[in-house]
Structure prediction request, 176 residues.
Amino acid sequence: MVRAFTAVDIPEEISEKLKELEKEINVGRPVAPDKMHTTLEFFSSLDSPAQEEVEKGLENIELKPFEIEVQSLGVFPSKKYIRVLWAGINSEKIFKLYEQASHHEIESDNDYDFHPHITVLRIDNIRKGDKKKLHQALEDYKGTSFGTFTVKNVKLYRSDLRPHGSEYTLLQKKKL
Prediction:
């Protein structure tokens, strides 16, 4: 059984901009630039037949490469109770990619509707002044573009939890 997820990687120039933003805000646990991605589906435990089914689903994707823009900031689950700061993905085609990548019989462990984003910060215990900083960042970066890029593939990663954080191993790459 493996923990796994399907995702679109974020190019280095955009993840570096988001890293600078993390430093500026200086709240919570920043996501390392090489771990920044847009998750399509997450699976907490896939056996081999289920993994093969997800891989077949990826092979059946029929989309051409498309542009997306990384724009604005948001939070999960709410402004009152912030656990994640994210940068938004502005693209209608990302929803088509999600739909096609999810076209298989395996139940994902996504416990939310698909909302394309890049996790920038994780917040475990918010300190008093941190919420104010985060609310200010939401205001300051409203409508701000962090860049655009062409989505050329979708990937299936294995995610192993280690003491130093998650370790990702590429299992499959589907070119668009």
